[in-house]
Amino acid sequence: MPRKSIEDYLKTVYELSQNGATVSTTDMSKALKVAPASVTEMLKKLADKGYIEYSPYHGTTLTETGRRIAEKIARKHRLLERFLHDVLKIDSQKVHKEACEMEHSLSDDAEESLCRLLKHPEQCPDDGKEIPPCDLMISSCEECIRLHNQGLEEVGKHNQNLVAMTHLKEGQCGKISFIRGGHNVLQRLLDMGLTPGTKICVERVAPLGGPVELSVRNSKLVLGKGVASKVFVEVERTS
Amino acid sequence: MSCHSCSYLNKKEINQKTSKRLKIALAGNANVGKSVIFNHLTGLHQHIGNWPGKTVERAEGTLHFKGYTIDVVDLPGIYSLSTYSLEELVSRKYIAVERPDIVINVVDASVLERNLFFTLQLMELETPIIIALNQMDIAKNKGIQVDVNKLEERLGIPVVPTIAVKGVGITRLLEKAIETIEKGPREKPAEVGYGEEIEEKINLLTKALKEVQVVYPRRYVAIKLLEGDEEIEREIERIAPQIVSTAKKLADEIKSIHGHSCSTVITSERYEAAGCIARAAQKLVPPIRPTMGERLHNFTTHKITGYLTLVSSLLLVFYSIFTFGDYTSGLLSTLFNGLEPLFTSAFGTGITGSIVWGGIMEGFIAGVTIVLPYIIPFYIILYFLENSGYLSRIAFLMDNIMHKMGLHGKAFIPIMLGFGCNVPACLGCRIMETQRERLLAAFVTTLVPCAATTIIILGLVGKFLGIQWALALYIFNLLVIFVLGRLAFKVVPGESTALIMEMHDYKWPHLKTILKQTWFRVAEFIKIAFPLIIAGSFALKLAEVAGLLEPVAATLSPITVTWLGLPAITGITLIFGVLRKELSLVMLAALLGTTNFAQVLTPVQMVVFTLVAMFYIPCIATIAALVKEFGWKKALSITMFEIVFAISLGGVALRLLTLVA
Prior knowledge:
Chain A is an alpha+beta fold.
């Protein structure tokens, strides 16, 4: 299965399900201009790979992995549109098609440079769609810039396959990769022993999105959900 | 700075010549048994106050030992010596500036790594230290065996194992402390060896600081500058700004090597060093089956049994405080009222007699009947819950709900207590970490309908309009708490602190420590509240005798009659309600000459009166508690806000209700 078509499918699901609803096969078929039968077949394959959840009569939703790929590609697409339109002055009618081709070969580094060059744009020129944020762990570019101006700091390194601590299940362990937060909170977390590279295990999660209890350095800590969601860990494979 | 340290030196020399007086400071993490050791050392010779100009508590005591008079200072429980909280700043300043003869670092043997992280920072302050390796019994139960000799050897400082709750090792600790002081400065204890590239920069900065006079040791200043410590930066900026910029440059270099900020690298390495010492000194034998405490922990934080335990223990706490309070309060009232004839015979029934009895004595009685029966058991239970570790579990379970009001889990305790009495609730706000959160929590608790307010709601609306209306008012009250809490959270400036706390193992608290803590709190409260209550009561009585009540009611009538649509007489009763809220209803009955309020008040008036009574002011004892905790200005702002809020609310309610009815 070529990467391009995986990405196109995931992007389509992503765009059609912007408000979180499931996407029907008919809508997919219309958007992709592909016969419904082919769409169904492809969706099954994507479901097998774990990118989407698909059930024949209910439709399709993205899994976490699928959503990430889709967001990334949508972001590249929209950044390219901006670039083609704003810098190269290409007609806004044409930018979409052009970007569709280029998005699959744009590297992450180039994407980042593009984002900086364009000064963190938020919307596309042709349809005003929102450009997904520069970092998947921040909900919008605006937030990214705002937090940056506020003196938001980060401790640690970004890495692939990171999840927020709040996504760990009870009993799951991981290694702290990076933490984001205001100066005071960061210092506090470090002082409590949550330094990058430290192994933590989630002991218990309070119901209804309450705080997380974790064990670290032979002791137990409780972090409110807000803080815990800003601590990103590399999940340890349970063997 | 240089002056300060000089004068201090002279003072110390004189001290040593004239008397054998020593200064010992206790330092350590929260909940490691520091206050238990403090209590063992000082007994009742304690004084609890605040650090000058700070809202941080300072506990001091004196003891006599081997011909020495020893002053002991119990520093607040902290995890680090950075600038995260006032407590941390106060502690490091104290150690650096006042130079105690020795610091006893109380270390929890069951959480060695985290505790040693703090020890290493104390050592960087280059102060004489000995370690009280406490909670050896808990560590043993958890399967942790600590090799005391090895720990001593690794750290290069004396270590004395203790079990403070049982009094084990305390005398030995004191002996060792004296011995260490008498021996004088010994070879340098071990220090954290940071990575080569960091050490190099520390040395560079230490050299640059050679000419600079500071209270802190130079190596410490160098490390803190690299960490970007705001307070130290400010201080050095004043004397030698070029060093601060050099430090910033060096810190950036470290950042580029490691990819983390310099403070992260230094903290990580310090933790590594602590972990290394801990691993060398302790042997872990995993316990065969979970300990009792662990099973209790699992049960009390479980998503079903946890909440069940929470609800039932709260009900039990409530029930016991109020049964006990009610009974004792009644008993004391009868007792005091029995004294009235004695008074009347001494002072006569004339004006003097009525002022002395009705003013001063009634006020005193009100104070005694509130403080002793309700506040004492409250404190005992609060400290029991805190010292045993259950408070942390409550915070864990309730964090989510309290967060919606911008507060975190711990705030649940004072708010819940507010339903009984706002006074201990306001004082209980101390369990919050920052001044901002204490204030927010206290504001919210003053809006909680206390037992006296409940009497008004039930006695007026509940009795004459039906219980469903009383319930509706109660729910409305909760809604107001929620909305105003959120608003206050938005309005009061400052960073909201999230819940970051250590979950300690359950332990059986030391009862004597609880009783002492209770005693000091109650004594403190009596000092603040009694004069206010008595003065308030006296002033009211005086006004009554002088015939000022009628004119006051008339002056207030634009508010009471025109805006609120109530009988003019309510102006007087609401003033009395400031003393004790239920008095506003009692007085209403007395002044209207009937307890059948349906004859004199319309249903709408009843609702409006109750609404106003619910919110219009914290009672005088609560105001006293607010003054004590937050000062006059904030106490008065809260009071003024609530007066304005209640009156506006009452007026709006009147118009809406008339429209509906």
